[in-house]
């Protein structure tokens, strides 16, 4: 994983030029919003919401978080590697994609790279003829999951690391192996780790070249790093997105992967409502204290309650959750991790199983066109939305029920294909003709989950405000936990 004390010295990156989706018509006479919008691939990625991270390699067998590159490949020998078990566990828990550490900082490759002997081909696993990356990508596709790969830029084993031109060539060749051998990928994961190599020198990474290679060879794969260009780090490894959390970013705010400082962290946490590029946040966190499996941590796996809170503080604030669940030395996910993962999946599934707002009568005090009428806010189709004719200001939506409903969770979603504009909101309830505000918040984005004490109401009102552009509410739903 990245650590903030490793800083690259490369100049600022250019913003990605991804194709934008077609935009729906605004009311007659309205101007287009100048705000950033997602590409089609970014929109699909955000709708997935949850991904599993698999940290696996020689560190699994040494018990270290960071290897130093001197590890003997012969220590890598998982007795019963089962990538289908990884994928099935992810799918059963409702996770839509998985990212594997194809190479961590120690330089050990989980595929038989032609560029180094420091890989699975020098291990006793499958007599040196195995390929973890192949088994992983095949398993993901067999289970209908997206497959992503992490290739650490820092390589503590490779002799050319620190000789900038040579290593940049080496890294691009390794990246090309991964991008051309294993089929379509959904995500390519980078960090800014930039320590010394075997020669005691630091490397200057050629990030524009790296990004161009991914664009050319895997045009639908999204790239993650602190600085994007498609997905940004959320600024911590605790699974917590900022509040507010904007998908848009100023590309100059985080000029290169590994840039450090309070302003950098704030930019990653919160984004920028006036940002010119769309870089939604991904909140990475481990289900265990460490990122790689250790037997000593089997009793320290996060509880379902804790995982649910992580879900609320990441997905529930408009970011995606990347939850690390590391395979053991056996090559399988530990039973405790799988159980905790399954419990999280069950809780999320139960939460959304019944929408108490379905069947409500939706109305608004604002004028709307028929194609953006209030009823579309309680339609589960996220491509339709409620939008008043006025371009900025305040929009109100009221849901009236035939009989009182009791709920403890409010789900709000913007039509993010058109951008993100809601700066603040209020949730009000009507009980016996008395209106009470029960919650307030800032941004909404892809999803905002608001937990409230149990409340029984005849009606629910949502008031959203924006000075940025048209307010588009794609979904309001109400839920009650078991």
Key words describing this protein structure:
482 residues; alpha/beta; TIM Barrel; Jelly Rolls; 2 domains; eight-stranded parallel beta barrel; six-stranded antiparallel beta sheet; 9 helices; 23% strand; disordered N terminus
What does it look like?
There is one protein chain. The chain has 482 residues and is of the alpha/beta class. The chain has two domains: 40-352, Glycosidases (TIM Barrel); 361-479, Jelly Rolls (Sandwich). It contains nine helices and 16 strands. The chain has helices at residues 40-48, 58-62, 83-92, 132-142, 164-181, 207-217, 262-270, 304-314, 335-352; strands at residues 50-54, 97-103, 146-151, 187-189, 222-225, 231-233, 248-249, 277-278, 281-286, 320-324, 361-363, 393-414, 424-431, 434-441, 448-466, 473-479. The strands form three sheets. Strands 1-2-3-4-5-6-9-10 form an eight-stranded parallel β-barrel, surrounded by four helices. Strands 11, 12, 13, 14, 15 and 16 form a six-stranded antiparallel sheet that branches. A two-stranded antiparallel ribbon has the order 7-8. Helix 5 (164-181) links the parallel strand 3 and strand 4 (187-189). Helix 3 packs parallel to helix 4, helix 5 (164-181) packs parallel to helix 6 and helix 8 packs across helix 9 (335-352). It starts with 39 loop residues before the first helix and ends with a strand.
Percent in helix: 10-25%
Q: Return the structural class.
A: alpha/beta
Distance between the termini: 36 Å
Q: How much of the residues is beta strand, in percent?
A: 15-25%
The CATH class of the largest domain is identified as Alpha Beta
Q: Evaluate the radius of gyration.
A: 23 Å
Total separate domains: 2
Largest sheet: 8 strands, parallel, barrel
The CATH architecture classification of the largest domain is Alpha-Beta Barrel
Low-confidence stretches: 1-33
Look up the CATH topology of the largest domain: TIM Barrel
Mean pLDDT: 92
Number of distinct beta strands: 16
Order of helices and strands: HEHHEHEHEHEEEHEEHEHEEEEEE
Trace the largest sheet across and list its strands. 1-2-3-4-5-6-9-10
CATH superfamily of the largest domain: Glycosidases
Number of DSSP helical runs: 9
**What is the molecular shape?**
globular
